[in-house]
Amino acid sequence: MSSLPVASTDPARAPSTASADSAPAVELVGVVKRFDEVTAVDAIDLRIADGEFFSLLGPSGCGKTTTLRMIAGLEFPTAGSVRIHGEEMALRPPNKRPVNTVFQSYALFPHMTVAQNVGFGLQMQSVARSEADARVRDALELVRLTGMEGRRPKQLSGGQQQRVALARALVNHPQVLLLDEPLGALDLKLRKAMQVELKELQRRVGITFVYVTHDQEEALTMSDRIGVMDAGRLLQIGTPEEIYEQPCTRMVADFIGETNFLPITVVAAGRARLPDGSEIHAAVHDPADEERTLTVRPEKMSLAPAGDPAGAANDVPGRIHRRVYLGNALSYEVDIGPLRVHVRHENAPGAPQFSEGDAVSVRWDPAAAAVLDK
Amino acid sequence: MSAPEVTRPRGLVERALEANTWLVFAFFYAPIVLLVILSFNDNRVVGTWTGASLRWYREMVGNRAVIGSLQNSLIVASISTIVATVLGTATALALERFRFRGRGVFDGLVYLPVIIPDVTMAVMMLLFFARAAALMHSSIGVSFGLGIPTIALSHVAFNISFVAIVVRARLGGLDPALEEAAADLYAGRWQVFRHVTLPLIMPGVLGGALLALTLSLDDVVITSFVSGPGSTTLPVYVFGLVRRGVTPLVNAVSTVMLLASMLLVLFSLLAQRRAQ
Amino acid sequence: MAQLTVPPEAETLPATAELERAAERAASRRGLLLSLPGFAYLFLFFALPLVIVFVYSFATRSSTGRTILGDWNLRSYARLLDPFVLQIAWRSFSVAAVATVICLVVGYPFAYYIATRRPAVRYTLLVLVMIPFWSNFLVRTYAWRVLLGSGGPVSRLTELLGLGQTRLLFTSTAVMIGLVYGFLPFMVLPLYASIERVDFDLVEAARDLYASGWQAFRRVTWPLTRPGVIAGSILVFIPSFGAYVTPEILGGSRTTMLGSFIVRQFLSARDWPFGSSLSFVVMTVMLVAALIYFRTGGKTL
Questions:
Q1: Which of C155, C129, A365 is nearest to B246 (CA)?
Q2: Residue of A124, A373, B55, C128 with fewest CB within 10 Å of its CB?
Q3: In which band, very low, low, confident or very high, does the pLDDT at C216 lie, cut at 50, 70 and 90?
């Protein structure tokens, strides 16, 4: 099917520097962006490997789109360096960079047909007509839009427009593909379907994807690695598992999924105390009496009737404050002394049931929790 | 969006609004229709109808002054439209897309010709050409008089602004991401303009050109001040005739001018519809 | 995961802030270049003429009607306060004002009706408004000359109705009719745009809160359409105030307005300094009116 190559066999993509094989697809070193008084991006260091699906995740205004635009060349960094496969991009305007962008609004040219849109980059590079036509055909086939060549953007649905934007970028065999919240305008069901499609596509084509989104579920499902940003800073980079299981800051823990925050005081190495006095095991290595925050996710905690024989390593007494029935799960608000935590039980047959006011044992494995600075 | 049923005025009020609307339309069209009908009146006297005929049209076609001034109108209108459209579009692009020193002043200057009453503009151009002629005569011994060039120059002076305003409005509504996408897809600056910006503002450019054409063909005051003998335009000539009284010849000429301008409007509206 | 690249020495990192500034300067130069032709033209053929008019307004008229560019004085401005001149100015103002009010009173219901039709009907009605609007102005005004003349259709009509022959032509009324006829679309279009933008859910909410039709209009629709009212009023007043063609064709010697008066200074009276001062003052009045328009939020013309 494809005149679209996989990974390194395409001559257009061979990096020119000697350290080609070890050069990351995208590298940002100390990149800063200031708009007048506002610092949108504050000294970012980032290395994205070849063929990786990398997401920049964060709330609105965190600088992720600005960062993407600096990779595309649509913004100048105020300081720092942007490199693609080892090559410095500072002197290159966007039309001279081996990257292509899928815009949030798709930015399809309304006065051109689908085929003309998709073939635009090839036309600008003076690719021979016959080759261009073949590549356009293949690109449309890749995104499952064969037969739509003659349509105009406004005759297409949102999902179709999105795929045209994708084809338009991919047809040029860019070294890196940048995507700016491409699924934001689609309804839920379509969005989920497209997430799967995009991931598949990326795997097949082998191009490095840099994906910007504020939807943490999206980032978790699709990415090989995620970079979490907030207020212009890169807080943590890691695989979805690393980010979810071992968040390194409060913001990351809070932004991704749901979590509990428990203020603790260090007792000794490996041991800490909760506000109500209960002692627990925790991965603390600080001097005694230091204050930290423990974060543990609701599904990592479990409840047992008070007085049950000990289960997991951490076992503290609590009382059920509220029970919420979610259909596929049960969510309990439990008071541990002055603290209120959420605990989530899957609604499996044989799972213990509790009511409001019950005394319970709250249990979790210390390895499933993470310790954060206060 | 259309007003929902409950808020559309009920009963009597609705009837009154409808009646008002019909009256206004009658008001708009009655004079025009009457004029057209009267132009076919065989009788010299406006009030008496003695049958339909084409004699005034025949007279018009044979009237050298009419044909001559029509020619002048068309020459001036085409030149001034083309020049004003080019300059106006460049102006709109400069003001909307770039930041440079003096932009504020230029911006204000562009709006002035639109606000100024045509009498003032007519006076301005007359004095200007009077002084320019005196200056050129005394410094390099060349003399020129009022004529087609001075008319065209004056028309361009006010038309640049109208074109600039229309094109600017169109530019402002353009999604900036489109030009960014073109650059992202390897288009250089000139290519972005040629393949994306220009086609997308073209309706605005054409609209501005149409406006300029209409204003140029319509103009009376400014033209009458800066035209010389032998370089009258059609509206100025007609104006001269009208001041001397109503004649059937004028009726015929007027009808032709009317129909021509109406056709122009219809044509452009249809073209707009098609483009959408 | 890919190997870390060796970070380059600090000096080989590009000074990107510099690059950005250089790019901005280059863009600025391009913009300047692009604006130059238009600016040069307007400077030469608009700004300069304007200055010349201003200068002439301080000049002197010789006994033969030539202009002496010396002996600068304020006589031309003093003449503006002449009762005769003030009368003409007042007439221009009141005729323009009345014409504006008539346009508003007639135009608002008209625009309202169109704005509350179905979209397809709306478009047709607007096209029907646009057609005469874009037709030749001179001819449209001339049509009224034909209509209002003695022996003309209007006169015939009133004769039939037993009201006797009307001599409407060459009166202020005729001029007003001509102005309303010529500029009514300038009132209708902004009004239409403004009414069309009203969220009629708000009117519905008002009705839900026990407002009558009239109260809902007065308290909700009218205030919301005020920008359109102001825009339309200014768009009618400005050209009416400085009108020339309409008063010349439909008005008479007793209904002189500023436009004709100014022209007369250049053609028959040959008092160019006075004509200049008049033109300048009329322009200033218009500018003030236009500034008011822009201040109250009108952005499009």
A1: C155
A2: A373
A3: confident
Residues C21-39, mean pLDDT to the nearest whole number: 92
Could you tell me if B168 and B95 are in contact, meaning their C-beta atoms sit under 8 angstroms apart? yes
C-beta separation of A170 from A177 below 8 A = yes
Contact residues, chain C, for B251 at CB < 8 Å: 146
Using CB atoms, which chains have 3+ pairs under 8 A with A? B, C
ipTM value: 0.86
Write the pLDDT tens digit of every residue in C136-170: 888 888 888 888 876 677 777 777 777 666 667 78
Name the minimum distance, in Å, from the CA of C24 to any CA of chain A. 10
Tokens of A35: 């708009």
List B71's β-bridge partners, or say none: none
Contact B264, C134 (CB under 8 A): yes
Q: How far apart, in whole angstroms, are the C-alpha atoms of residue A142 and residue A147?
A: 12
HSE at residue B44, side-chain half, CA atoms within 13 A, is 2
Structure tokens at A129: 């007509």
The whole-model pTM stands at 0.83
DSSP B79: H
A101 contacts B186? CB cut-off 8 A: no
Q: Is the pLDDT of residue B266 over 70?
A: yes
Cβ of A105 within 8 Å of Cβ of B187? The answer is no
The mean pLDDT of B248-270, rounded to a whole number, is 83
Most confident of B9-18, B263-272, C173-182: C173-182
Phi/psi of residue B170, each to 5°? -65, -40
Q: Which of B181, B183, B200 sits opposite A111 (nearest CB)?
A: B200
- Comparing CA positions, the residue from B245, B259, B257 lying closest to residue B44 is B245
Beta carbons within 8 Å of B119's beta carbon, 6+ residues apart: B221, C242, C244, C258, C259, C262, C263, C279, C282
pLDDT in tens, B98-127: 988 888 889 889 988 988 888 999 999 999
Residue C206: phi and psi, rounded to 5, are -65, -45
CA atoms within 13 A on the CB side of C95: 30
Is B181 within 8 Å of A72 when comparing Cβ atoms? no
